[in-house]
Amino acid sequence: MADLGKxxxxxxxxxxxxxRFGFSKTTMDDIGNMVGLNxxxxxxxYKNKEAIFCEIIDDEGENFIAALKEKISDPPEWDKxxxxxxxxxxxxxxxxxxxxxxxxxxxEQLKFQPMFRTLADRFANRESDLIxxxxxxxxxxxxxxxxxxxxxxxxxxxxxxSLKNGQSGRHNPELIPDESDFKIIEEDTRFAVGLxxxxxxxxx
Length: 204
Hints:
single chain, mainly alpha, Arc Repressor Mutant, subunit A, Tetracycline Repressor, domain 2, 2 domains, 9 helices, about 0% strand, elongated
């Protein structure tokens, strides 16, 4: 229990450091100083700042998925549920980038770290399962034509990710995406995914 409390303090301190200095410039010394631990003691809990960052994102991701399931229960239409989900995940991405002062270039580099890759894959599977559930229910109710709902969910997510990655950092990969970038991503995602959803719909 003592270790759990200490880890929570480290996570909180690290989040503050990332927001203040940016992920790239934050050091383990910065985090240790804020929580009152020397570097050796900090390494007892986490082997590097990437491991701390992954835990922050993991915790935030779990909370995000739980909150999102509640939000998308409101629109009754299957297509609006999916569009609502993609809009909210986009806002979550924007919030994560801004809160952690995380440039696109750094985010891209983190993708290739094994611990982050494992985390991202697990999160992607959770996302795909959620969209698959919506599509499977729509199929069972006769709202969409017969398709492989699992594969379709994966394609929808891949498209949303491609649009996000293509626009983010377009002007300068060393900067955090600005509001105009996020607005374009949101509009393009709504339009492109809308075409897919419309193609799935059963015609009367």
